[in-house]
Amino acid sequence: MALAVFEIRDVDLAGRIGRIYTAHGAVETPAFFPVIDVYRQEVSVEEVRAAGFGQVITNAYLLWKRFGREAAEKGVHGILGFQGVVMTDSGAYQILEYGGVELSQEEAIEYQKRLGSDIAVILDIPTGDVGRREAEESVRETIRRAVEARGMIEGDERIWVYPVQGGRYFDLVEESARVGSRLGYYRMYGIGSPTVFLERYMYHVVVEAVYRAKKHLPWGRPVHLFGAGHPLVLPYAVALGVDTFDSASYILYAREGRYITEHGVYRIEDLDYLPCSCPVCSRYTPQELREMDRGERTRLLALHNLYVIAASLRRVKQAIREGRLWELLEETSRKHPSTARVMARMGRYVDMLERGSARGRGVVRGVRAYGVESLSNPRLRRFYGDAARLVEAVAERWGGGRAVLKPLDPKPEPGECESMVGGEEWILFYQPFLGVIPVEACGAYPSLQMDYPQEGLPEEVIEDLASKIVSTVSTLRARGFQVRLEYCGRVEWQARTV
Ligand SMILES: [Zn+2]
Q: pTM value?
């Protein structure tokens, strides 16, 4: 029995806005599941909900340790006092950490069924930051259990998650995802992210693991990233196709007096001002927070941290709606060295990023180019590829003659391009980031809807344009064209290219 649990409503790059349907309502993705600690929860679930989270995750193993049968009788919604969507993690990580094997896979699955979880995870073996051999073993054992679980979960009303393991051994991540993609009774996939990489801001490792896993996972199924909740990493994971996240960092940080921002994490002692306008930061000063009772401070900082995460996901969603997720990635890359490092690698993932990009969109927005990373913007790359093919096709049709390359500056008025087609001389324009644009395509999106810095362009961007010009000129010459190069000399990059 295959129930449709996920609906994709909008796509940009490989990121999507979607809906996951569960027995306790729908979750709009990308979504964050705050971790609820059943032993100690300074922020109430009502407050979590009020901060914008209609979904939470908690640990089935810890529920079992603390409440045993009682939790099974009341159900997880009853125990937490939360009527939204509840995901349970099997708690495999805690079992590993405490060295116990008190719960078999069968018991873990049965328990989560009795809890009435909306989304549940089989008893996997998280890879963590371990040696190769151990990582192989964790992948093998997780696959074995995932196959073994079939009889217990197939047709169940819960959404069961297949956990992709492998950690930083990306070939193992791929193998794990490849096998998982064939087990159709899992209606959701999870990517285990060793928290150690997240804590050390090694987002590039996490992002690489996401890419390797997503290459094999079915496009139509939601994908969860375990343990990730920092606003800096969320946009990149979403861009590569992650739909849901969970993390306890909002509360763990708060207990240590740490304050999450879009730019990184601060200690409350180090802040003179609160760069945020959430209900907490609008009401208190850093000094008031420092001086208050520890429990109350933890509660307020945790709330603030949740508001920041919520706001960053709203920003990501709006960027998807506008088709400007790439631009958001570029902006985020300037916020922290760790994101600059991730951004520098995003160009490797264009196959994935282009896979999801819709060609025609309802709302047409311009493209903003900032610097070197913009050269990898899938929309610009696609335009460049299309334009290069058009140059070949038109050159073929002309079969030689005279051609002129001139800067797309000033930009022609709408409709003006058409009047320039079919003259004595074939006109081709050139522009940084876009390359060479034959007049036949000069009105095509996004050639006239682009914003980029007119001055101070990085050397790499100028070189990129120069090499595209050189390659076009040699193509044209090979087809028997006499090529003339024009520039108006007003703008720095023109002079430097020509
Ligand atoms: Zn705040």
A: 0.87
